[in-house]
Amino acid sequence: MSIVPKETIEVIAQSIGITNLSPDVALSLAPDVEYRMRQIMQEAIKCMLHSRRTTLTADDVDAALNLKNVEPIYGFASGGPLRFKRAVGHRDLFYIDDKDVDLKDVIEASLPKAPLDTALTCHWLAIEGVQPAIPENAPVDVISAPSDVKKHEQKDDNLPVDIKLPVKHVLSRELQLYFDKVTELALNEPNSGLFKEALVSLATDSGLHPLVPYFTCFVADEVSHGLSNFPRLFALMRVVNSLLQNPHIHIEPYLHQLMPSIVTCLVSRRLGSRLTDNHWELRDFTANLVASICKRFGHVYSSLQSRLTKTLLNAFLDPKKAITQHYGAIQGLGALGPNVVLFEVFITTFNKMKS
Predict the structure, then answer these.
(1) What pTM did the predictor assign?
(2) The CATH number of domain 6-96, selected from 2.40.30.110, 1.10.20.10, 1.20.1730.10, 3.90.870.10
């Protein structure tokens, strides 16, 4: 037996102009109507659960009707749950509690603004990692007023003080996970195949420019604190080499932070703590890395090669330096080319001997 009575079928039929529907036909249609209603409600509940909601809305029913290729019901859209009231004199009859609207207020209300035409505009989200202060971008948070303690520490001359707002550099979660994974491999698994794949990614991926300052600080910190760890030093130089090979990275502003770490791995007295550490190979690799930097960025920083040559020459001519430092200086000067060896080394040595 259907929960939909035949009287409901007769009322629906009369609403669409069918006045001569027989009771037997209405009784036969009732189970089919119940089946269709249950099918639609099951699909609507699925849409509700998929939207992570616990309240069924008219939009869920419309979505279920759309899935069944049925025209949706018009005029019942609502942003919130509908309120029903019981009809007076009827125990099981309910109606939607609509708010009464004065027709006079609707007529006298002003017309809404016309919608704007569709248009496209472009603006800079960030330039070299710095967000420009334009109306299209989110405003920088206003600095709060100084506390009472800081007020007493201010200058007595009452001169205006220029306060520059700090620029917050925010990384996406994907880039943060990428940086953490690469640094973990460089520190703990420098000889693994996964680290080699990470080096290839550093040399080819086009979306790594926001990570350049982080990799620069990471290399500088680890080189300064890990001179006794040979595998780590070699891994760090390979990371720098991969970053320099990436054509999508603008690394020129960070060379002044990378060069001290690179030169340290070239002319440091001792690299590694074990006798089996092949620090000669690391110095050869770093010498070629220095030469590639001078060749690529020498026209941008005119004093780069001259300052580097002077540093290597001082390490080479200093008799107090160890043989490992002399070796690194010779390899670095040799990698810079024969002209550097001729004009810098021999001429400088000749002038010192002459004086």
Answers:
(1) 0.51
(2) 1.10.20.10
